[in-house]
Amino acid sequence: MWKGIHSPGFLSGDVFQGKYPEEPGRAARGAWYPQVDAAAGVQRTRFGATVLGPLAKDFPIFSAYAAGPQVSYDFDLFGGTRSRVDQAAATAQYESAELGAVELSVSGNVVIEVLQIAALRAQIHVAQDIVADDEHMLSLIRAAREAGAVSGMDVLSAQSQADHDRTFLPPLHQQLSAAQDALASLSGVATSEWTPIDVDLATLRLADDLPVAVPSELVHRRPDIIAAEAQLHAASAALGIATANLYPHFALSARLGEEGLLGGGPSETAWSVLGGLTAPVFHGGALTAERRAAQDEYQAAFATYRQTVLNTFSQVAASLQALGNDAESLLTQQRALESASASLALTTQAYAAGNAGYVQVLDAQRLHQQAQLGEVQAYSQRYVDAVKLLLAAGGRVDLRRDR
Questions:
Q1: Which value, to the nearest 10 degrees, does the dihedral of the CA atoms of residues 333, 334, 340, 342 take?
Q2: What is d(CA 348, CA 232) in angstroms, rounded to the nearest whole number?
Q3: Taking a C-beta distance cutoff of 8 angstroms, is the pair 44, 263 a contact?
Q4: Number of H helices, E strands in the chain
Q5: d(Cα 162, Cα 369) in Å, to the nearest integer?
Q6: For the whole model, what pTM was predicted?
Q7: pLDDT tens-digit series, residues 256-270
């Protein structure tokens, strides 16, 4: 089993599953069904001549009540309700996708900070080894000086080299502290309560056969693409609502209940059925203006969606190219380290035999130090670029392999 860069839910693709809450959609879909309400009312009335004619003046003022259920239903002939349901579902999906994008970003930043910490620890270890080698070489040169085999200049040069190499450590320790504080912040823990994570860069492994292509379906699952697509659907639904508002609206309502006088007397069951038709005639151009605005918003949402998709594939291509370059860079750094190690060993032996000067040893040491640090940086950069590929693909590419 290859060991992979692992953060809970990150490599496994559990960061964002493309799911979104159903409640907003269910709330909007309620408009598809008949609406049943309990209604009660009290009125005090005096009939006019329109109802009773000449007898109106002889009919007393009275108080009456009515109570019972009432049912209403909108036929949604032109799809206004259906568009509102679609808009609610798209809005819920957008909000969920935005949350998924934040989760993915935080997970990726956590992994990158962990890799940064591992890389800094590795560089500190290399710097400490370099200082230890300097101390060992300095002790040998001092012994040779006491024996009269070398000059005082060689001792000063060795001391200067050792002091110079020690300057590498404080900045690396500072960077390590900053990276640990950043990881604590990303984890939602106060720095004072944070326990530093000890990750050894040498224990991390990536598959040798990293992908050279990523299926477009994986990229389509990116939360930002899902969010842009949801915005496009919501804009389309808003256009449907604005279009439906230009056409007649037909609703049917029915009522059944008890009616009677407040002053006493028998009550009776009464019912009524009412069909209503409302058609826009003049709204000062507001309805057509709203539809044109909805059309413009749809075009803007489509442009945003298209640009998001293009940016996504550009990021994936850049990440794949970076991984290819990282492999070549790592191979070059490993070869450079092998050559520098062999050169340093031979130069040190030649210096001990008196066949080389200390300046040559210093040059060989510098090349070896640069090769060591370069190898660590090449390893860490390869891991970071692998994480960036995961982020670009929406956290769905598994870089682990079974062998």
A1: -170
A2: 69
A3: no
A4: 9, 4
A5: 12
A6: 0.72
A7: 888 888 876 667 888
